[in-house]
Amino acid sequence: NAGVTQTPKFRVLKTGQSMTLLCAQDMNHEYMYWYRQDPGMGLRLIHYSVGEGTTAKGEVPDGYNVSRLKKQNFLLGLESAAPSQTSVYFCASSPYLAGEQFFGPGTRLTVL
Amino acid sequence: AQKVTQAQTEISVVEKEDVTLDCVYETRDTTYYLFWYKQPPSGELVFLIRRNSFDEQNEISGRYSWNFQKSTSSFNFTITASQVVDSAVYFCALSEAKRGGADGLTFGKGTHLIIQP
After folding, report:
1. Residue A68: how many other CB atoms lie within 10 Å
2. For a Cys staple, B13 with which of A11, B17, B55, B85, CB 3.0–4.6 Å?
């Protein structure tokens, strides 16, 4: 039982490049979330999903897109990376509304 | 809109001292959930506790205890007899169940706790 996994763990991009971060969970959770963590800012919600095929915007959605084609996977895309998107990205899943969220190990992204 | 304030940016204590981390929240909902997470130097987020707005009983788990007071909108976390392994960043977070809770957690900015040997 791997829990929540994230791919890749580290990535360096140049401004304007695109990439996709993959989050996978094997706990059959309905709810999945993407957060970003910046120094001194805590975690902020980017997008979330309440089930397969659904997505919604969080607090800081600009510059990101997401997809949840399969229940176990939640993808976060950056179409044209900017230095302001340098951050640590965390994925989380939860079995029910307002329940405990289980976090992945994080992806450290640097945009030059 | 909901908000979580952790006014203590950094706390440093000597091992075996007791330490309290403060958390003050704002919400217009009557039903909500409060959480604490620990982030050790390795970077992962570790769940510590979840408490709903209707349960004001204090909770104790080993050396950890939580004091929830709706009257002051606070959910403080105390570590008794601190240990070096407690050194981490601690986050308080809020979820407003009225909106389904599906809009995720609102986090405070965290308190960096340093336990000196």
Report:
1. 20
2. B17
